[in-house]
Amino acid sequence: xxxxxxxxxxxxxxxxxxxxxxxxxxxxxxxxxxxxxxxxxxxxxxxxxxxxxxxxxxxxxxxxxxxxxxxxxxxxxxxxxxxxxxxxxxxxxxxxxxxxxxxxxxxxxxxxxxxxxxxxxxxxxxxxxxxxxxxxxxxxxxxxxxxxxxxxxxxxxxxxxxxxxxxxxxxxxxxxxxxxxxxxxxxxxxxxxxxxxxxxxxxxxxxxxxxxxxxxxxxxxxxxxxxxxxxxxxxxxxxxxxxxxxxxxxxxxxxxxxxxxxxxxxxxxxxxxxxxxxxxxxxxxxxxxxxxxxxxxxxxxxxxxxxxxxxxxxxxxxxxxxxxxxxxxxxxxxxxxxxxxxxxxxxxxxxxxxxxxxxxxxxxxxxxxxxxxxxxxxxxxxxxxx
Amino acid sequence: xxxxxxxxxxxxxxxxxxxxxxxxxxxxxxxxxxxxxxxxxxxxxxxxxxxxxxxxxxxxxxxxxxxxxxxxxxxxxxxxxxxxxxxxxxxxxxxxxxxxxxxxxxxxxxxxxxxxxxxxxxxxxxxxxxxxxxxxxxxxxxxxxxxx
Lengths: 386, 148
Description:
Chain A has 386 residues and is α+β, with helices and mostly antiparallel strands. Chain A is built from 17 helices and 8 strands.
C-alpha cells in the first residue's frame, strides 16, 4: 500500500499541480461580534481548526466612553448619573462603591436608615442584573423559556425599584451621604409579597433549566477553570466562587450594615460552565434572604441622607473602596486634590478582570460551546470598556 | 509591613497605613523583586487592578497596582497598593506580568491611556481606544476634552 507521501511524489511526476496543505490552510479565522448579538458590544477573534478553537484574542473598546476622564471634569455629585451608564442593569451597585469612596474622602456619616435603604436598592438591583444575565444565558443555549421567564420576573424587581427610586433602570439613587429619597408607604409589604412569589419561581427555574439533562450535558465539565488558575488570572465574582473560593466582598470586607446580615457565601468546587451558571442562581436565593432581613431590621424612621454642601470636598487624599456587584468586586480608586472635582478616578470592574479568562477557557473548546463558555463568564462588555 | 521594611530597607517608602489599606512606593528597578516577595512570602496572590495617575507638577506618572489575596482568609479584606513613579517624558517601567498574570490587560490599558511603556510586556498596543486614535494618551492631564 502506498503512503500519502508516495502518492504526492507520483502525482508531481505526472505533472499535476498539487500544493501541500499548510497549517495556515487548516485554520479559519472568525470574528465574533461586535454586531453579533451573541457577544454584546464586544469583539473577539477566534481561529478554528475544524470544530475546535485554537486561538482567541479579545478586542474590547466598542463602547468605551471615557468614564474615568469624564469624572475629572465634574464635581462628585455630578458624576453620579454618568457613572451608572456602564452597567445600567446594576446601576445601584456601581454607584455604591463610588459613594463609599467619596464618603471616606469627604468625611460623611451616613444615617442608619439610609444605609439600609441603599443596601436594599443594591440587592434588588443585583436581582435585576442576574435575571437579565440568566435570560441571555438561556437564549444563547437555545432555551427560549429561560429567556421569557427571567425577563418577565425581572419586571417585578424593576417595578419595585421604580416605586423606590422613581426610575426604572438608571436610578441615580445611591449618592454620597445616603440615598436620594425615603421608601414609599407600603413598600415593605409589597416587597415581602414579591419576594415570596419569586422564591417559588426560583424553584421552577431550577426544575426547567438547571435540572434539564440537555443543559447539564452542554455545561457540565465544559471549560473547567481550576482553583489555582482562577487565583492566578485574578477573576472575580461568580467565576471565582464557581472555582471553589468563597470570596464575597459583602462577607470579607462588610460595608455599611452587611455585618448585621446573616447570609452564606455560595460557591461550588467544579469550576465548569455549570458551576459558573449555578452560582449566580444560588446568589439570587441569598439575595432574597438578605432583602427580607434588611426590611425586617431596618429602623422604622429617621433620616435617609446626610446633609451635604452643594459641592462637597474634602482634604487631599486617596482611597480604594469596593462592593460586591453582580459581576464581582467593584472598586473605585479615587485621588482627590482638595477641589470639588476628583483628580483621578479609576474604576476596577469584575468584567474587565474576567475577560482575561476568556482566551484561557475558549482555547481547546468546540465552536458550538463558545456561547456557553462566553456567557458563563458573567461578562458585561459595556462595564469592561467603561 | 515590618517584614517588607526589613527585607528591602530604605528603597521602599511607606506612603500611608490605614485600616485594611497600605500604600508603598518603590523604585522602578526594584518593583519586580518587591512584587515577587509580596506574592511568595506575604500571600498577595493577585492584582485586582492596575492604573496610573498623571502628576504634571512633578513631571511624573505614578503607576499603581492594587494587590489582594484570595487564598489567605486573614488578608481577604486587605489591599496593598504597590506604586512606582516614572518620568513623564520617557515613561517606562518593568512589567509585572511574570509575577501577576492578572495585570496583563490592565497594563495594556495603562499603556494606551497614560503612555507608560511596560518593558517585557508582549503587547504594548491599542486596547480600548479606536483604531484611528491619533492624539496623546487621554488620561494625561494635558489632554483636554473639547469644549470644556
